[in-house]
What does this fold into?
Amino acid sequence: MDKAGLEAAFRAAGLSRLLKDIDYIAKSAIRLSAAPVDEATLATGASKLGGLPDLPPALSWPDWKGLPQSFIGQIRLADVRPYDINHVLPADGMLWFFYDARQETYGDNPADRSGWRVFFRNAADSLQRLPVPAALPPTSRFRAASLTFTGDLTLSQFPDMEIPHFDWTDDEQHKYEMLLSDLHARLTQPEHQLLGFPDTIQDDMRLECQLASHGITDSDSPAAAALAKGASDWQLLLQIDSDDRLGMRWGDNGLIYYWMTSASMQARRFDETWLVLQSE
It folds into this structure.
């Protein structure tokens, strides 16, 4: 949906007064449409979910606590460049995503920092499709899917956190929640997405990322209070939905989310991501 369509949806929902806030609560995203495929038909270096990673010689398959991590997918950044209207991502290169094969990393424990990995190379040359490690359990290996991309506008599920002077009535908040539910119901595929506002199942994740990434577990501590103001700097990099077609299921039909601060994104420090798993 583009901005004109979103504004029309607000008017149809009786939310014309809230159009003044739309720039705070709408954020551009890139939807990933996955189609299961015979991986042998995919060119080396193609964007995909699941299957086997195509890595340069300098990178090896990461592990965590003695077990290879699950390969989540890879994105050829030239493929998404036409949809990255704010030029948030690098224009060229590749991103690779991995996650704890045991799915015991949830984002709340600072000690789990290496339970996922994101690799970035701005020149993806001499890629090799790695064989699956023998130690990776079959349930932690995912079927390959080719990817196509579309631009979209996503809405915040927590508008009071985005708007500096929040003045919505209870009725307006209820109508907005109904609009979110209606827009969500229109999505016909698993909600795989780059950038934008996430499809949150539980609480907002930004404070959790801010505290856990700084080694803080006590949200009531003085250290947490000092760090809390930086929570708004975190932005979604990638969310991957449960997708039975690929054998991906996160907890109880949940999602995994890779987050970064704006500063890390601008500096292309993709090793500074933080991952959260949420499920129903």
Q: What stands out?
A: The chain is about 20% helix and 25% strand. The first helix runs from residue 3 to 12. The chain has a mean pLDDT of 95. Helices lie at 3-12, 22-25, 77-80, 159-162, 170-185, 206-213, 222-228, 262-266.
